[in-house]
Automatic annotation (TrEMBL):
<keyword id="KW-0457">Lysine biosynthesis</keyword>
<protein>
    <recommendedName>
        <fullName>4-hydroxy-tetrahydrodipicolinate reductase</fullName>
        <ecNumber>1.17.1.8</ecNumber>
    </recommendedName>
</protein>
<keyword id="KW-0028">Amino-acid biosynthesis</keyword>
<dbReference type="GO" id="GO:0016726">
    <property type="term" value="F:oxidoreductase activity, acting on CH or CH2 groups, NAD or NADP as acceptor"/>
</dbReference>
<feature type="domain" description="Dihydrodipicolinate reductase C-terminal">
    <location>
        <begin position="129"/>
        <end position="263"/>
    </location>
</feature>
<dbReference type="GO" id="GO:0008839">
    <property type="term" value="F:4-hydroxy-tetrahydrodipicolinate reductase"/>
</dbReference>
<comment type="function">
    <text>Catalyzes the conversion of 4-hydroxy-tetrahydrodipicolinate (HTPA) to tetrahydrodipicolinate.</text>
</comment>
<feature type="binding site">
    <location>
        <begin position="122"/>
        <end position="125"/>
    </location>
    <ligand>
        <name>NAD(+)</name>
    </ligand>
</feature>
<dbReference type="GO" id="GO:0051287">
    <property type="term" value="F:NAD binding"/>
</dbReference>
<feature type="domain" description="Dihydrodipicolinate reductase N-terminal">
    <location>
        <begin position="1"/>
        <end position="124"/>
    </location>
</feature>
<keyword id="KW-0963">Cytoplasm</keyword>
<keyword id="KW-0521">NADP</keyword>
<feature type="active site" description="Proton donor/acceptor">
    <location>
        <position position="155"/>
    </location>
</feature>
<comment type="pathway">
    <text>Amino-acid biosynthesis; L-lysine biosynthesis via DAP pathway; (S)-tetrahydrodipicolinate from L-aspartate: step 4/4.</text>
</comment>
<dbReference type="InterPro" id="IPR022664">
    <property type="entry name" value="DapB_N_CS"/>
</dbReference>
<dbReference type="InterPro" id="IPR022663">
    <property type="entry name" value="DapB_C"/>
</dbReference>
<keyword id="KW-0520">NAD</keyword>
Length: 265
């Protein structure tokens, strides 16, 4: 599988390039960085610190190499990811996108693109987080209607979006589960102080130092509470998951895929 990595100097892009470079089933064709960066034109091996040159360039135009690839792996910014999506549609190439922070309307453009290309969107590519979703579904079925549900996420000081994409997906999974038992479950954050409104999920974001990613869902009862937590110690689990997602798209028809399809859990 021939792979282009967007943002190979970024935190995720670099790890994804490293992971893809180590896989026998993947071949790195190029990295794409922003215009004007001093590393444009250099070897991807140098830019992503792979320890050797790999004979693949870092360019500032996806169009220049897109014909040579099977899939684009994109963990960048929402502006860049929407551009990447348009280019992928124009050239009929598969996309794995892990960028977060999109509005509902922006997410709709991924679904639209999926009418003509394979698109895999995952706000969290860690296998363990996606097992956590299963645990949340179980807990929600059992106690979702009798507890207060709050989601606390922690990330590094550089993260630009809040709440995290994962929080939103966890909240959506819980709401979907509740929806089958309770109509019109409202999902939103609370503002200001005041007592808790029943039937809502609260989102809380903490940013400090170099915390890679932590998510805790609280099911608050009276006299007791249940917490379900995932911590990552670094970002490698997400990079591995991103490459698993790309490999999954091999030979796939156009369509909108998620990490659930990849993990089959
Ligand atoms: N789905 C998942 O499991 C995960 C998702 N993320 C998400 O991935 C995204 C990126 O996160 P980080 O790597 O931490 O950010 P980062 O800021 O370290 O990297 C972003 C990269 O995008 C590149 N970029 C920005 N504009 C560009 C343009 N016009 N052309 C080419 N490259 C461009 C930057 O140069 C940089 O290399 C965020 O939205 C984050 O939330 C992060 C970790 C895991
Ligand atoms: O920016 C990050 O680091 C992460 N972002 C994703 C998110 O917004 O949920 C996934 C993971 O939490 C790491």
């Amino acid at each position: 599988m021939n792979v282009v990595v967007i943002g190979p100097r970024g935190k995720m892009g670099r790890l994804i390039a490293q992971e893809a470079n180590e896989r026998a089933d993947m071949h790195l064709v190029a990295g794409i960085g922003p215009k004007g960066r001093p590393y444009i034109g250099k070897d991807l091996g140098q830019v992503a610190k792979l320890g050797e040159d790999i004979g693949a360039p870092v360019l500032d135009e996806l169009q220049a190499v897109i014909s040579d690839c099977d899939v684009i792996i994109d963990f960048s910014t929402k502006e860049m990811s929407l551009e990447v999506l348009d280019t992928a549609v124009a050239y009929r190439k598969a996309v794995v996108c892990g960028t977060t922070g999109f509005t509902e309307e922006e997410m709709a453009s991924f679904k639209k693109a999926a009418e003509v290309i394979p698109v895999l969107y995952a706000a969290n590519t860690s296998k363990l987080v996606n097992v956590m979703v299963k645990l949340l579904e179980l807990a929600t079925t059992a106690i979702g209607n009798e507890t207060d549900i709050e989601i606390l996420e922690m990330h590094d000081r550089w993260k630009t979006d809040a709440p995290s994409g994962t929080s939103k997906e966890l909240g959506e999974a819980i709401a979907a589960q509740l929806g089958s038992q309770l109509k019109d479950v409202a999902v939103y954050g609370r503002e200001g102080s005041g007592s808790r409104q029943a039937g809502t999920i609260g989102y809380h974001s903490l940013r400090a130092g170099d915390i890679p990613s932590s998510h805790t869902v609280f099911f608050g009862g009276l006299g007791e509470r249940l917490e379900i937590t995932h911590h990552s110690y670094n970002w490698e689990c997400f990079a591995k998951g991103a490459c698993d997602c790309a490999a999954y798209l091999t030979g796939k028809k156009p369509g909108f895929y998620t990490i659930k399809d990849v993990l089959a859990i």
